[in-house]
């Protein structure tokens, strides 16, 4: 239910207000009257009629004294719409319901910004353009936004020049991310004030930065027309209509306890891509002291398992071969719907090990992430499954064993450590010590051999000493990650650290420490990658496109998520055929590599970021997994390092007799 003040709700009867802007026709049963002149506003300043000019609908926002600054903000504070409805019958429901009851015969609530768009075409003939910043969740949110906009009659513009509306889907995790958005808004403002200002598009800021800085964004002079938080995307067509009608900045920053957009089929940004993202949960309950996500994304809530499995099937039918399950804390997924409870066997409900704890009380019941991943991986054995971003506390042993047993669940785990110092981890409210983290890493690498680990690190957190920094460097040296995201601490207002801790590490010290851990990471990653060069089975690589540096070569992703670049050679049609061609050379029977193929690649060299190699054979996840198993059992020999343009892994190279045949089909 929308949290609207009684005063604003009295204005819901304004109908069919139509405005034209660059041919953008908007029709709405608006919450607000048409804009009034300054004299009208002055004359009616004390009036409570429906024609009163309203600057805000959020009870915690003071009306600005500058008459030019008129904003309409829907937020979580203040009386609800139910308060308004009950007030029409004189039934108070909260301490806010003081107003004189309204006459239901003259005041009827017709519309609120988040209601269903079914059957409405508010944007018919208008185009929108989207710029995406930040994490993979923002990419998925953009696909949800596109589905909502297209459903309301809008169409996506190919470039900014033809757009009636420009959306910036934003990130607020660090100051640098927000600075980029402010710079971009300044560019768009110049368009609004330039010679083509009559054709300047509306500007909407969406996502986490919108949720965090709603007032500042609306107050930015002529920069922003619309602000919308991550839980209110359904309302955007209505918000656009209100903004057009009233010529005022409008915002919906309501956080929801249950919004997951489970009923919306995302409109993929790159439908030709073989990779896709699927959001399974939203929000976060961890309340790490440095993190703004719980304040911009709200509490955790999970989609029902049926809607997830349905979308996975749809993506499989569309040819997707690499699917990433998304969530702010993805492995804390817990479906408490009727089916989620009934289908759950209670597997995977425990924490990673006794050294982990939570700041909140964990709840029992419902289907956990391990059981969901099990069901998702069974839908299409030839579709890889990844997941991000997890929390280290939610890796029960059952989840690790599932990952080790399913060929299509990638051996890639993101393990955000943030720091290697127990002292700093405590200040960060992470819920574990460095010793508990080490124990988890050992457990993962024991159960899931060859797993690729990645992590996040923050340098210069509040009170971090040189000894704390040495602990972080030590942890990174001992673990040796394949990938890492490293940043200097950036204070976020409203967080526990922003309110209670002192940002006392000088910027130059933060930078020096960041440079220290970057060097350590690259050395460790290079060690890990070089150890993988020439693996007996090679690597199973999904062909994703041409190399940016050399268009004559292919690039693809291996199971561990790292990139491998290889030549565009003809390859054998299967691994089995490469084993059974009795040493025959030449090009006979070979096939051309195609986008979306899985190919067996033997790696020849590595840096800290990628591999070089040679493609051997086209394959499948099932066949490659079977081949790996046979190698581990000693049933076939080791693939030799392949050099030269026309050499293939023939039977003689594998130590097989000339008449040996080997069936590795499932």
Write the layout of secondary structure elements.
Elements: H1 6-9, E1 14-21, E2 24-30, H2 38-43, E3 71-74, H3 81-87, E4 127-132, H4 136-151, E5 155-156, E6 165-170, H5 175-193, E7 202-207, H6 208-212, H7 214-219, E8 226-228, H8 236-246, E9 249-252, E10 275-279, E11 281-282, H9 293-297, E12 301-302, H10 305-317, E13 322-326, E14 334-335, H11 338-343, E15 367-368, H12 369-379, E16 384-388, H13 397-405, E17 412-414, H14 422-428, H15 434-447, E18 452-459, H16 466-479, E19 483-488, H17 496-500, H18 507-532, E20 539-546, E21 553-558, E22 563-567, H19 575-579, E23 598-606, E24 610-619, H20 621-633
Parallel strand pairs: 3-9, 4-5, 4-6, 6-7, 7-8, 8-9, 10-13, 13-16, 17-18, 18-19, 22-24
Antiparallel strand pairs: 1-2, 11-12, 14-15, 20-21, 20-23, 21-22, 23-24
Radius of gyration over C-alpha positions, nearest whole angstrom: 28 Å
State the helicity in percent bands: 25-40%
Q: What kind of sheet is the major sheet?
A: 7 strands, parallel
Number of helices: 20
Find the structural class using helix and strand composition.
Answer: alpha/beta
Stretches where pLDDT is under 50 for at least 5 consecutive residues are 1-66, 78-85, 91-99, 104-119, 640-666
Give the overall shape, derived from the CA principal axes. globular
Strand content: 15-25%
Q: Strand order of the main beta sheet, please? A: 3-9-8-7-6-4-5
Beta strands, count: 24
Task: Report mean pLDDT, rounded to a whole number.
Answer: 81
- The end-to-end span amounts to 53 Å
Cofactor: [4Fe-4S] cluster
Domain Radical SAM core: 270-527
Biased composition (Low complexity): 25-64, 87-111
Region (Disordered): 24-111
